[in-house]
């Protein structure tokens, strides 16, 4: 068995592994650096003592799996870890050793009553790559190549226990009460638990891929419910390259733009028309092709956007709001970024922050076409993130601010923007969007 | 196994959650003589043992006929034994839970797993011997003989986990098997222990 395991990593999985390790290292170093910075910049601030910052760093660097994901998401929302680095954390998902052959056979027997060899014409017992909470195998049947995703046993339980692990960390990082934390935790927990439900994933994959089928240059897998179950999903095998691989091939600007546009349209259509979206916009979930099309993988994490939240969130995207303080105040009240009982200083502080943030975030939306290769634009975003993280008033806010429903939307926008930036794509931003 | 006695007995255990009060009462229910019971089994303990042993014999029979199983390496074979065994036990979970109630936990008392022990150890020995032959398991003459006993303890531990497993679809048991088998085979495959032993010998002989 030992031999089998050391051999499972094929070139692709090895690369992913390496990629993940570097990601972790960068993230880890950054946390270290940042924790130091936290201390130095704020020695004058009585609110944050050195021990506290060290604690934050120590705990953050020991987190794994879903706990890390949550910490990362929360801190991104708070601007505590600048987004560029917290995205690296996202790579460090559930890392488990590959499933043994007997367990794969057992899982198939348990759910589909047959061994994989009986169901498929060929079935590769060696995993071709790791998925976030499972692994993917290649198989063929009736001349079709299939991808079969198998979930690790016990993942559902570990998600919950991982989450409990992050609670004390979050409490210390933000100094919130349990009650306030709950709002965010319930949201993240709901998504993570959903991710372990392959039946739900199958259903959503089918729905969203059908509804988005008309968008040009997007490809989705065909799903096979008859060979899927609670911990198994069978779909058609999609060809394509991962982002880093794709960029190495130096695709032409035209191809980059086509792909960028497809991704942009995909999200715009989901957010504004379907009101639910593929909420895991990290580069591993897309396969890029040189003909300018992109394949979408993994509908494990889908966020449904409540109408109330949608109206609020996007009312802030109207250009005139920046010049109308009263309107902005109303929107922020509704979005729970400021509260009626806030002091004047607090209100002013968050209004100021919001204006700056909106000004920045809105830039792409306020132009017909936006060039995501702009380095200045992204530097501005990263700087802003750092500035927020350093701002003690924001970091030590007495209550959590911002709607829990926003966590995944913010993360998705950030992920999408980063990918478009890497692609250096020019995108027409108004497709499938209501008039602002 | 004597079906005419075993079947009504198992049905009784599953419905009532405990053993019949006496052998006499049980055989009376079957309208049979008590002595007929003793012709085959000397006590309920012995019957439990025979039934539990039958489960293991059944799965081993189906595994050895399975072509995929024979192609597995040593670690995978043991994992396959565990998975198949506990799938089988899952079908009789209520029964095993009742049987387990009468397990005192003291090694001098007999219990329902006793009959399986020999067969299990023999299976493990087979797997390990093959493993030693093709280099997947380190040949450590001074501990090799202990391996079957250690793996039997492992099996008892997994049984314990499974009996108390309240996770969805017993996924905790699956994860336990997966991780324990991997860990134990990491220990018994040729590794630093062997090179360390080799080196130690070299140092002392070189004096």
Number of helices of chain A: 18
Measured between the Cα atoms of the first and last residue of chain B, the distance is 62 Å
* Main sheet specs of chain A: 5 strands, antiparallel
Structural class of the secondary structure composition of chain A? alpha+beta
Radius of gyration of chain B from CA coordinates:
21 Å
Sequence stretches where pLDDT stays below 50 over 5 or more residues of chain B: none
Mean pLDDT of chain A, to the nearest integer, reads 76
Estimate what percentage of residues of chain B fall within beta strands: under 5%
Q: Tell me roughly what share of residues is in helical segments of chain A.
A: 55-70%
Shape of chain B: elongated
Distance between the termini of chain A: 59 Å
Q: What composes the largest sheet of chain B?
A: none
* C-alpha Rg of chain A (nearest Å): 22 Å
Task: Write a compact overview of the structure shown.
The complex is a heterodimer of chains A (436) and B (207). Helices cover 56% and strands 10% of the residues of chain A.
Characterization of this structure:
The complex is a heterodimer of chains A (436) and B (207). Chain A is of the alpha+beta class and 436 residues long. Chain A has helices spanning 2-7, 11-41, 50-62, 65-78, 83-91, 101-112, 116-119, 155-174, 178-195, 198-211, 243-248, 253-274, 307-315, 325-334, 344-362, 375-390, 392-395, 406-423, and strands spanning 122-123, 129-130, 134-141, 144-151, 218-219, 232-236, 276-278, 286-288, 294-296, 302-304, 369-371, 426-428. Chain A contains 18 helices and twelve strands. In chain A, the strands form four sheets. In chain A, strands 1, 2, 3, 4 and 6 form a five-stranded antiparallel sheet that branches. A three-stranded mixed sheet of chain A has the order 5-9-8. In chain A, strands 7-10 form a two-stranded antiparallel ribbon. In chain A, helix 2 (11-41) runs antiparallel to helix 3, helix 4 (65-78) runs antiparallel to helix 5 and helix 8 (155-174) runs antiparallel to helix 9 (178-195). Chain A is globular, with a radius of gyration of 22 Å. Chain B has eleven helices and no strands. Chain B has helices spanning 3-16, 23-29, 34-40, 44-64, 67-71, 74-91, 93-101, 114-133, 147-163, 171-188, 192-205. The longest helix of chain B has 21 residues, at 44-64. Chain B is elongated and about 75 Å long. Classes of the chains: A alpha+beta (436), B mainly alpha (207). The interface between A and B is medium-sized, with 24 and 28 residues.
């Amino acid at each position: 068995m030992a031999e089998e395991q050391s051999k499972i990593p094929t070139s692709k999985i090895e690369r992913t592994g390496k990629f993940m390790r570097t990601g972790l290292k960068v993230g880890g170093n950054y946390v270290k650096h940042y924790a130091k910075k936290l201390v130095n910049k704020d020695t004058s601030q009585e609110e944050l003592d050195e021990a506290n910052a060290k604690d934050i760093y120590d705990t953050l660097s020991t987190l794994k799996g879903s706990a890390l994901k949550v910490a990362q998401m929360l801190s991104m929302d708070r601007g505590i870890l600048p987004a560029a680095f917290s995205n690296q954390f996202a790579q460090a998902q559930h890392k488990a050793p590959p499933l043994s052959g007997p367990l794969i056979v057992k899982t198939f027997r348990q759910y589909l009553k047959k061994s994989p060899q009986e169901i498929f014409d060929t079935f590769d017992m060696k995993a071709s790559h790791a998925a976030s909470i499972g692994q993917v195998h290649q198989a063929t049947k009736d001349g079709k190549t299939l991808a079969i995703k198998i979930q690790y046993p016990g993942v559902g339980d570990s998600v919950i226990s991982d989450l409990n692990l992050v609670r004390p960390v979050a409490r210390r990082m933000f100094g919130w009460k349990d009650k306030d934390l709950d709002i965010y935790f319930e949201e993240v927990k709901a998504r993570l638990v959903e991710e372990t439900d392959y039946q739900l994933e199958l259903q959503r994959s089918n729905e969203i891929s059908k509804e988005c089928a008309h968008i040009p240059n997007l490809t989705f897998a065909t799903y096979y419910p008859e060979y899927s179950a609670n911990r198994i999903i069978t779909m058609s095998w999609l060809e394509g390259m991962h982002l880093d691989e794709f960029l190495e091939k130096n695709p032409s600007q035209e191809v980059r733009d086509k792909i960028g546009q497809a991704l942009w349209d995909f999200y715009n259509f989901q957010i504004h028309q379907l009101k639910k979206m593929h909420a895991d916009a990290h580069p591993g979930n897309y396969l890029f092709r040189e003909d300018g099309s992109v394949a979408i993988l993994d509908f494990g994490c889908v966020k449904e956007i409540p109408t109330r939240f949608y109206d609020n969130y996007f009312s802030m995207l109207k250009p005139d709001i920046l010049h109308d303080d009263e309107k902005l105040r109303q929107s922020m009240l509704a979005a729970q970024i400021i509260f009626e009982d806030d002091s004047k200083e607090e209100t002013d502080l968050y209004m100021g922050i919001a204006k700056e943030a909106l000004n920045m975030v809105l830039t792409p939306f306020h132009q017909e076409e936006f060039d995501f290769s702009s380095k200045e634009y992204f530097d501005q975003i990263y700087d802003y993130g750092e500035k927020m993280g350093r701002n003690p008033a924001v970091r030590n806010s007495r209550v959590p601010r911002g709607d829990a429903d926003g966590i995944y939307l913010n993360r998705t926008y950030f992920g999408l923007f980063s990918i478009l930036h890497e692609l250096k794509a020019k995108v027409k931003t108004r497709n499938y969007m209501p008039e602002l | 196994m004597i079906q005419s006695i075993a079947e009504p007995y198992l049905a009784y255990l599953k419905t009532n959650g405990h053993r019949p009060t006496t052998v006499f009462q049980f055989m009376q229910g079957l309208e049979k003589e008590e002595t007929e019971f003793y012709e085959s089994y000397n006590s309920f303990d012995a019957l439990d043992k025979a039934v539990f042993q039958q489960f293991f014999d059944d799965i081993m029979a189906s595994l050895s006929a399975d072509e995929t199983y024979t192609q597995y390496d040593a670690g995978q074979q043991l994992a396959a034994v565990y998975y198949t065994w506990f799938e089988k036990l899952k079908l009789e979970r209520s029964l095993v839970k009742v049987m387990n109630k009468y397990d005192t936990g003291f090694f001098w008392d007999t219990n329902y797993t006793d009959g399986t022990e020999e067969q299990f150890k023999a299976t493990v020995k087979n797997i390990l011997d093959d493993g030693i032959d093709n280099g997947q398991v380190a040949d450590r003459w001074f501990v090799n003989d202990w391996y079957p006993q250690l793996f039997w303890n492992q099996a008892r531990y997994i049984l314990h986990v499974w009996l108390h497993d309240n996770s969805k679809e017993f996924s905790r048991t699956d994860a336990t098997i997966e991780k324990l088998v991997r860990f134990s085979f990491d220990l018994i495959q040729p590794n630093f222990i062997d090179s360390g032993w080799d080196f130690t010998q070299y140092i002392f002989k070189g004096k």
